[in-house]
Structures are given as structure tokens and as C-alpha cells.
Amino acid sequence: MTTPDPSQQSALTHRDFPASFVFGVATSSYQIEGAAHEDGRGDSIWDTFCREPGRILDGSSGDIACDHYHRLDEDLDLIASLGVRAYRFSVAWPRVQPDGRGAVSEAGLAFYERLVDGLHARGIEPHLTLYHWDLPQPLQDAGGWVNRETAQHFAEYAGVVARRLGNRVRSIATLNEPWCSSILSYQLGEHAPGLRDRKLALAAAHHLLLGHGLAMRRMRELELSAELGIVLNLTPMDAATPDPADVAAAQANDGTSNRWFLDPLLRGEYPQDTWDAYGPDVPQVQAGDLAIISQPNDFLGVNYYSRGLLSASGHVKPQTSSYTDMGWEVYPQGLRDLLRRLHADYTLPPLSITENGAAYPDVLEDGAVHDAERVAYLDGHLRALHSAMQAGVKVTGYFAWSLMDNFEWAWGYARRFGLVYVDFGTQQRTLKDSALWYREFLKG
Ligand code: IFM
Fold first, then answer.
1. Selecting from 1.10.10.10, 2.40.50.100, 3.20.20.80, 3.40.50.300, what CATH number does the domain 6-443 have?
2. Helix or strand run (H / E) with residue 227
């Protein structure tokens, strides 16, 4: 399937969505802030990981990143210039609690307070994420997410942030993409802490979910005005053919990538087929854990980038499809399929598309970046979202990933997801065509 050319279709605008629908842009702390060693910020596992040779494609780190910490006002003006109603950001745990427990850094909290103040001053809703992967290194030294106590420390940290900001932000998500901070990080070795052990990864995943539940419980006690929930990266898994072996492969991948997180959160149980397939690697689940994990959420954040296409021999890449710079298939229909499937299979809180976007090898020429492929990507996915909503799925928001080019984890600065181009030598920001397109979309 090729990506539709938006110029050939009737224009979709924000007016096609309900008036209450929230459009925004998203970032995360380690990917943009820089100032990695300032104002008492402790090391996170990503600081450590970036120092290990060979971990990051271009040998870089988030030490400076987009220097957002020092350019807060400029960046807030940038966000406002797009005409978005909301901004999704994450709090760096090691800025707030350098050791991951105990002492709280006033300077760290003050930075996020300034950020929230600056958003309010510009009429933009703050959407806060507590954990976008930057675990304080001292907690990793004690086992990281494999250690059950990390879940308790996370709940304590959630309470600290929520007490300060929980009545001033529109939403708080506990975790961003626990699949990444467990499977990708402890089993596949691609993200910090870079381990390759499935049993450890499944323990980490369980403790992340437990941490979510304990943090929810802690924050509920505070009776905050913020809506509380969690963000999952979900990848619909299609079978390449109706052959039962291909269908079984798709089902198995759906279990490990999606249902392993959805089912405990929304049904209070792990999916039996995947549990059986994991054999002796399954996590130790204590009595009461699943009740804590499955307490009600005010929203579920869905991050969608692409689908998986499976045959019995592994992932298939159709030649007729187009691909982003990450090698991910451009497949807007997958977003509609995913949303409709969630709606059919689960009892859901309102959904929000908390990330959606694409990396392309952008070039800055004469002060412009003509990223037509990203425009087509965004347009196609907004159309797919709109169609799912027409079919009855309740979705309350959409956040483009990302506000600006940033540190793309193991890819360093070699992949650009921004609507805004960042020259990492000068830190100059330039609106790409996609940013101008989004602005027009929002103006209608
Ligand atoms: O950059 C990441 C983000 O941190 C989490 N979701 C996926 C994005 C693109 O890889």
C-alpha cells in the first residue's frame, strides 16, 4: 500500500474532530533536555548506557540533546507557534530524586514547575509522563526493574511529583511504553541497561506494571484534578497469509508485544497462551499484584507507529509498502485496525494517541525542510484515527511525535522524528513543512 498524497484528497482539518478533542506534540526528558549534570541531577541508566562503547549508533548521548533545559522559554514559544492545544513531556526521575529514593531536589521540581507555568501562560495544556525510561542509576545498581522494590520507589516518586504538579496538569501517565523499558531493554539488549535475558525482562515487565499500579494508588489518595493513566506502544500483528502457521505467528507476537501488557492492565490477568509459551521464564506474581495493576485508569495512551506482518518464518516486509528511516512500514490502516480491535476486545477508558510520527532523512536547504513524506504520514494517520472514531471508538487526543528532532535512543541523532528541525551544532530550530502543515490543519 502506498501512502496517499494529501494534495489529492479533500483536506482533513481539526474541525472534523469533536470540539473537545486535544491536538498536541510530544517529547521526553532525556531526548531533549540536555543539562545532564546540572542542578543536582543524578545519573540515569541512559547516561551510563551512552558511555558504553558501541551502544549508540553515532556514539552520542543526551548530555546536551536539544539543550531544552536552557532554552525552555524559546521552546515553549515554539510549541505555541504551532497552534497546538497540548504538550506532552516527561519528568526526569533523577532530576527530582537523584538517588531514585529519599532526598528530593528542589531545583529539579522547580524546572518542571516553570515548564508547567510557561505552558499555562501560553494557553497550552500540560500532559505529564512520570517515566520515559530514565531510571536513576542507583536503582539500577540495586537491580533496576528486576528488583521488586523499584516499584515501591516509583510510587514514592510519583507521589512527590503529583503533590507538586498534580492539580496543574491535565493528565499524568505513569509509564511510557513498558514493553520498551522491559523487553527491549532487558531481553533484546537495545536499550539501557542493555541486558539479554528473557527471564529478567519478564520480571522487569511485571515490576513496571506493579509500579504503575502502586503509583496510581498513591496518586488517587491525593485526589488530584489530573486524569491518571498509562501509555503503551501497541503494534497490531497481521498474518502474512491465512495459513494457520502464519496466523499462529501473528497471534504469538500479539501476545508478547500487546496482550502481555493490555491484559494485566485491563483484565487483571496475563494472557494464558503467552504465559504458557514463556514456560519457566514467567515472572513471580504475588497475591494481590494483578488487582493493583488492573485498577481503573482515566485514560489509556496508545503510541502507534507501524504494524507487524508475520509469517511462520518471521517478520515480512511487503515490497509494495513504503518505509520510514527506521525501516518501519508506513501503514495508517493499522491505527484504525488497532483502535477498533481494542474497542472490541476490552472494556476501555477513553483512549489518547499519545505518540504517532515518522523519521525521515530531512535536509535543511535555504531555511526550509520539505518533508512531504512526513506530511503524508501524519495526514494518513489522522484520517485513520478519524475513521476509527466514526466507527465508535472513543479517542480524546492526538500527539504528534515529536515536537523537534532529538536523541533517538540507540540511534543517537541519526534519526529525525521532529516537526521542527534541529541543527545540533547551533541548536537552531526550523519549522519543517510538516510543522507548517500541522499548524494549517489546526487552524482549519
Ligand atoms: O523516540 C521514541 C520515543 O521515545 C518512544 N516512542 C517511540 C519513539 C520513536 O522511536
1. 3.20.20.80
2. strand 227-233
pLDDT tens-digit profile of 210-237?
999 999 999 999 999 999 999 999 999 9
Cell of residue 403, nine digits: 515536537
Contacts of 163 (CB under 8 A, 6+ apart): 222
- For residue 255, the CA-to-ligand 1 centroid distance in Å is 21
DSSP state of 236: -
In the set 227, 355, 373, 408, the catalytic residue is: 355
The strand order across the sheet containing 314-315 reads 237-239, 308-311, 314-315
Nearest CA to ligand 1 atom 9: 408
**Residue pair 138/149 in contact by the 8 Å Cβ criterion:** no
Best residue for ligand 1 mutational test, from 181, 417, 419 (most atoms within 8 Å of Cβ): 417
Residue-wise pLDDT for 253-297, tens only, equals 999 999 999 999 999 999 999 999 999 999 999 999 999 999 999
Spatial separation of the C-alpha atoms in residues 204 and 395, rounded to whole Å: 29
The response to whether residue 407 sits with its C-beta less than 6 Å from ligand 1 reads: no
